[in-house]
Each structure stands twice: as structure tokens, then as C-alpha cells.
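User: Okay, second chain of the day. Same drill as before: sequence in, C-alpha cells out.
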Amino acid sequence: MLRALSIIIPPLTIWLAQVVAPAQAAKQSKEPPIAVKLNPALCLAPCTVMLTLTIPPASDNRWAVAELDGPEFRSTWIQLEGAAAPKTHQLPPFKSLPAGTYVVRAVLYNLCCEYSRQTKTFIVKGN
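Assistant: Same drill. C-alpha cells below.
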């Protein structure tokens, strides 16, 4: 019985290394459906914040919305062109933000509904 197992286990180990490991590596390196970059992440009031969304092109992507919630609320929608859309989207700047803590929500919509969401927090310090 031990001899039979010693014949079976090495080929099984080789198969696992060749098939399973690359599949797990591909899953781990996959980009998120939407990513948010704030510039700057901390500033003094009144502050202008630039927001960049990174959305890998995909045929189902239709809309993205960025919401700024805090002492003031602002929202920006962008229409995506599916697989033909650019990967990076520079949104109009959020200008003259007063002091406070803000939450940025970026939401990606596909053909029917919300597909992915990312949230980041940043602070505008008072003078």
C-alpha cells in the first residue's frame, strides 16, 4: 500500500504545482473593479481635492459615480463605454472644501445594477 501511494503522490504534487498554483496567482493579481486615488489625502481648508478613478475596461461597465460626503455633499457621474472606455478617469476637482472629515464613495454600475464600490476617508484641516 505504501508503495502504491509513493507512486501516486509525486505525479499528484507536480499536477497541483502546475495547475492550482498559477490559478491562485491569477486570482490574487486581479485588479479591483474600481479603485480611488485622492490627491492630496490631507490638506488645509479651503482645499481642492483631485479624484482619479481606475476602472479596468470591461464590456458590462456602464456608469461610475463618485460621491463626496461630509460637511458638503457633491456627486459626479461618468458614462463608461464598456470595453472601449479608458482605464483612468480624472474627475473634475472638488474645490473650496471647508474643514471636516469627508468620505468618498466610488460606485461602478454594470448593465443592471451596482457592481462594485470603494470607500475612502480624508480630512480637511481647519486654519
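The chain has a mean pLDDT of 83.

User: Thanks, on to the next one.
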